[in-house]
Automatic annotation (TrEMBL):
Signal peptide: none annotated. Pfam families: Memo. CDD domains: MEMO_like (cd07361). HAMAP family: MEMO1. InterPro entries: MEMO1_fam. This is MEMO1 family protein. Belongs to the MEMO1 family.
Length: 335
């Protein structure tokens, strides 16, 4: 039973314990101490959505979700993330017993992992792919910091983690996994971290929607469809109501509109609505399947718990077709 190395430490985030601790403290300190008339953490906010890019990019945004996360009753923490390192259909479980961080190791809940494996519905994450994957790892130092703030310096008191990669799947498959996981979601001592960035805009992502001739069109639409700039199945907003009197929005305005459609769908609490919005807009929300699974789980728990987005940022305000941008959003749900 090996320990998964902190493979992105020293590149995506600092590998020096003191520097990393100071950076995370700084991110969290810049988040207000109160959100939505609640002191932080938000009572019973056991589920969050947070981004997973390098901390210099997404750390300030992720801090909003982490400061809202209520870990005071936590005895187990699920981490759901998308697979960037290999094609995955369905869900897969870690084979490691611990996840390393510059602060120390977080223990994997082997009992829960084995329970899930025994259902026959999960595969195992290949060890090399697990180490290469960043969507789970980027949350472990943030989680450690919040556990330290909640339980003190004795890491033996920290709840174990359940890392799960969520791969490709139909709406029905997402609902099936959501139903399976809903029994764990009902447990008030279980917390959940859902890992996702939002729109990835640029040629490297094969997704460059912009507004032209009265419609939102994708410059990178597949040529096989016979139309170079495919019109997305999205109704453009009244740009003047968004303060764009010229009716000619910048590309970053279009990105924000597409992300807002996705966030509104998540906040609706309806799994089918979110699935449809992503299908219609083709928005490159990399954690769309983990989000879909947790939304299905929330619906299965008598529809209790809806997400509330508290922060939205972009790595760059795109104006030119050769630019690049990744969007970050943070949300919490009270269950």
């Amino acid at each position: 039973m090996a320990t998964r190395d902190a493979s992105h430490a020293g590149s995506w985030y600092d590998d020096d314990e003191k520097k990393l601790s100071s950076q995370l403290d700084g991110f969290l300190s810049r988040v207000p101490d109160q959100l939505d008339d609640h002191g932080l953490p938000v009572p019973d906010a056991r589920v969050i959505i947070a981004p997973h890019a390098g901390y210099s990019y997404s750390g300030p945004c992720a801090a909003w979700a982490y400061k809202a996360l209520d870990l005071r009753a936590a005895k187990r923490v699920f981490i759901l993330g998308p697979s960037h390192t290999y094609y995955l259909r369905g869900c897969a479980l870690t084979t490691f017993s611990k996840y390393a961080t510059p602060f120390g190791d977080l223990v994997v809940d082997r009992n829960t992992v084995n329970e899930l494996r025994e259902t026959g519905k999960f595969t195992d994450i290949p060890a090399r792919r697990d180490v290469d994957e960043h969507s789970l790892e980027m949350h472990v130092p943030f989680l450690w910091k919040r556990l330290q703030q909640t339980f003190g310096d004795d890491s033996t008191k920290y709840p174990p983690i359940v890392p799960i990669l969520v791969g490709d799947g139909s709406a029905e498959e997402e609902k099936a996994f959501g139903k399976l996981l809903s029994s764990y979601l009902k447990d008030p001592t279980t917390a959940w971290i859902v890992s996702s960035d939002f729109c990835h805009w640029g040629s490297r992502f094969s997704y460059r929607p912009h507004f032209s001739d009265g419609a939102i069109r994708d410059m990178d639409a597949p040529r096989s469809k016979g139309v170079r700039h495919e019109v997305l199945n999205v109704t453009p907003p009244d740009w003047s109501k968004l303060g764009i009197s010229s009716g000619e929005p910048e590309i970053h305005d279009v990105i924000k509109v597409l992300d807002q459609l996705a966030m509104d769908a998540v906040e609706s609490g309806e799994h089918s609505e979110f699935y449809k919005v992503v299908q219609d807009s083709h928005n490159t929300v990399c954690g769309r399947h983990p989000i879909g699974v947790i939304m299905a789980a929330l619906e299965a728990v008598d529809g209790k718990g809806k997400f509330k987005f508290v922060q939205y940022q972009r790595s760059n305000l795109v104006k030119k077709s050769f630019d690049f941008s990744v969007s970050y959003a943070s949300a919490y749900a009270v269950v």
